[in-house]
Design a protein that fits this description.
Layout lengths: L14 H18 L6 H10 L3 H7 L1
Length: about 60
């Protein structure tokens, strides 16, 4: 429950699938990162550093 999914209010129609797809894409980017840190640390680094996300996408 990395993103506190149980607290989300998205439950009807296509909304869960529309939210899950980008979430899976970002998780895969974090997993493929050459940096050997924890997932929460990678997410924090991504939110703090503007150059971190482009480096993940380019890697």
């Amino acid at each position: 429950m990395m993103f506190r999914d149980d607290e989300w209010r998205i439950r009807a129609g296509h909304a869960p699938a529309n939210v899950t797809t980008p979430r899976h894409m970002t998780n895969n980017l974090y997993r493929m990162s050459p940096i050997q840190d924890s997932m929460p640390f990678k997410r924090k680094t991504d939110s703090w550093d503007d150059e971190y996300l482009p480096s993940l996408i380019a890697a």
